[in-house]
UniProtKB/TrEMBL annotation:
GO terms for molecular function: DNA binding. InterPro entries: DNA_brk_join_enz, Integrase-like_cat_sf, Integrase_recombinase_N, Phage_Integrase. Keywords: DNA integration, DNA recombination, DNA-binding. One of its GO terms (biological process) is DNA integration. This is Integrase. The keyword DNA-binding applies.
Length: 433
């Protein structure tokens, strides 16, 4: 009688002649989270158990239920399959030097849009996605929030991601045309929120009251240096350095030295993302004092970063950290809590206008606020770019986005025009005289 073979059922016989039975998944199943199972020594029971487990595998392959630790099976011919391939080859890909193709912040933005696309059409084959269905998706996302709309910015980002995803599909020869081309939704207007001095003061006061001095310092550094949130969270003690005289003009060194308590200009050393060059951004007055106080506290708490998680100490009494992606998420939640407290305080004080402003601010707006503040002081674009880290060739374009029309800019334009026109008027008056 022929012996019946049960997939994945394996018997192992020891030196004493006793056979133990196991269900051992294939390499493909192991990759997707299926684990080996010991089935005991009774062959009949082992066969029945193996058959039952194989039925679970078939159900999983058909898209049905699965053990918790097993990955969801994705049909490669579907939108979900395309998304999985894009994540594997592009989002998790590396360059020749081993560095990631995409920055973590970019991956986060892409993943948000990809999750929306997968929820919309993940189970469908690629041919299901047509221009007409993309238009239906666009209209649904742009509907009122009460009807399921997600807002202009999120809708535009999702449609852009769809276009990128299907361009990838074309490169992979999976489809011939891109249904997301010309999705006919204009880009949303650029965010133009600028923190007022009152908002900065309110946030720093609320952070101090909440026992979060690092949130207050982060706000101050964001405004004073225009650096990105992630870069500030990674800022270490070693990046707070003395700046030698040969790195600046003599008159600038003299000005900064006069502002320094030890007559030594100091600043934070940052690496510009565009050029990869390291530069030192000077810090003065209260900002410098607060950085040095934070470094003293950090060293006492066994921390090497300037900013700390003030409310979540680590084991052994060590100071908490805003470390990694989870740390940045905690920082954002702490910032939101401080913002809520600051807005409530403003409301209780009868300052409704400030409360409304506080409710709408985000940490990233400090970067824009820094640029606008320096622009209103009359600094040239290339000087601002040196601080914030943008490519000089792109500075004018960025300033157009980062510098909304303000009273300060209008006043400066009139003042400059008046000042430059005055000599002409004087010459004209002299000629008439």
């Amino acid at each position: 009688m022929a012996k019946i073979r049960i997939p994945c059922l394996v018997g192992k016989t020891n030196a004493a002649g006793i056979t133990s039975w196991y269900w051992q998944p294939s390499a493909y199943l192991r990759k997707n989270g299926w684990k080996a199972i010991s089935l005991g020594k009774n062959e009949t029971d082992a066969i029945n158990a193996a058959r039952a487990q194989n039925e679970r595998v078939e159900e999983w392959k058909d898209g049905g239920s699965k053990p918790r630790e097993v990955k969801k099976r994705i049909n490669r011919g579907t939108v979900a399959g395309l998304i999985a391939r894009y994540r594997e080859e592009i989002m998790e890909g590396t360059k020749q030097d081993g560095s990631p193709v995409l920055a973590d912040s970019t991956k986060k933005t892409y993943n948000t849009a990809l999750r929306k696309l997968e929820a919309w059409a993940g189970k469908h084959p690629l041919a299901f996605i047509t221009r007409s269905r993309v238009r239906v998706l666009r209209n649904a996302m742009m509907a009122d929030p009460e009807k399921g709309g997600i807002g202009h910015h999120a809708a535009h980002q999702t449609l852009k991601m769809g276009r990128t995803l299907f361009a990838f599909a074309i490169d992979c020869e999976l489809v011939e045309t891109n249904p997301f081309d010309n999705f006919r939704l204009a880009a949303p207007p650029p965010r133009d929120v600028i923190w007022s001095p009152a908002a900065r003061e309110a946030m720093m006061a609320a952070a101090a009251a909440a026992g979060m001095p690092s949130i207050a310092l982060a706000v101050e550094l964001g405004f004073a240096t225009g650096q990105r949130e992630a870069d500030l969270l990674h800022l270490s003690h070693r990046q707070y350095v003395a700046i030698p005289e040969h790195k600046m003009q003599p008159e600038d060194f003299a000005t900064l030295a006069a502002l320094a308590p030890d007559h030594t200009p100091r600043g934070i050393r940052v690496r510009q993302r565009k050029t990869k060059a390291w530069i030192e951004v000077p810090v003065v007055n209260d900002t410098r004092n607060r950085i040095e106080a934070a470094i003293r506290s950090a060293r006492a708490g066994g921390v090497t970063t300037v900013l700390m998680d003030d409310t979540r100490p680590r084991e052994g009494g060590l100071q908490g950290l805003y470390e990694g992606k989870a740390g940045q998420t905690r920082f954002q939640r702490d910032f939101a809590a401080v913002r809520t407290a600051a807005a409530a305080q403003a409301e209780n004080s009868g300052d409704t206008e400030l409360a409304q402003e506080l409710a709408g601010i985000e940490f990233r707006d400090l970067r824009r606020t820094c640029v606008v503040f320096m622009g209103e002081l009359g600094l040239d674009a290339h000087l601002i770019a040196a601080i914030t880290g943008h490519d000089i060739d792109e500075t004018q374009k960025i300033l157009k986005t980062y510098m909304p029309r303000t009273t300060g800019r209008a006043a400066r334009a009139i003042a400059l025009a008046s000042a430059r026109n005055k000599p002409r008027q004087d010459d004209s008056n002299q000629a008439e005289g």
